UniProtKB/TrEMBL annotation:
Organism listed in the record: Tannerella sp. oral taxon BU063 isolate Cell 6/7/9
Keywords, sorted A to Z: Ribonucleoprotein, Ribosomal protein
InterPro entries in alphabetical order: Ribosomal_bL17, Ribosomal_bL17_CS, Ribosomal_bL17_sf
Basic residues composition bias: residue spans: 127-141
Name of the protein in its database record: Large ribosomal subunit protein bL17
Gene3D superfamilies: Ribosomal protein L17
Superkingdom field: Bacteria
Gene Ontology cellular component terms for the protein in this record: cytosolic large ribosomal subunit
Length: 158
């Protein structure tokens, strides 16, 4: 039985898995979006979200803790300067996984993992949705809608 066994080992040793996740996290920080398998993306999400949360506190201690995980000073600099300012007001959920289908060779489930605040297409649709003030449930007929509806029913009756 798999009681309390939450880590996906990804078919690798502990050292290999930690090195792979550190490299993937550095790539995600630098490029803001990477293409990988769904299993690796889910493991990467668990790995990188605490690091992004740690970057909100820009102390030297936090930078050293993040550097001990990533081992890439350029990624740490990018995380603490650019990314932390964008995600400062977000309480969590810094990454998004978008499934893209199956890989040709071995039929593995593939996906994009990206930082939420850096996808411009998704941000535009989110802003347009927030601007609308009406909701579906509480929509009331306005005077213009009532006259248009009355005209259409009169035209249908004739």
């Amino acid at each position: 039985m798999r009681h309390n066994k939450k880590v996906n080992h990804l078919g690798r040793t502990k050292a290999h898995r930690e090195a792979m996740l550190a490299n993937m996290a550095s790539s995600l920080i630098k490029h803001k979006r990477i293409f990988t398998t769904t299993a690796k993306a889910k493991s990467l999400r668990k790995y990188i979200e605490p690091l992004i949360t740690k970057s909100k506190d820009s102390s030297v201690h936090s930078q050293r803790i993040v550097f001990s995980s990533l081992q890439d000073k350029y990624a740490v600099k990018e995380l603490f300067t650019e990314i932390s300012s964008k995600v400062m007001d977000r309480p969590g959920g810094y990454t998004r996984i978008i499934k893209t289908g199956l890989r040709e060779g071995d039929n593995a489930a593939m996906c994009f993992i990206e930082l939420v605040d850096y996808n411009e297409n998704m941000l535009k649709t989110a802003k347009t949705r927030k601007q609308s003030t009406r909701t579906r449930r509480s929509r009331k007929k306005s005077a213009v809608d009532a006259t248009v509806e009355a005209e259409t029913t009169e035209g249908a009756a004739e």
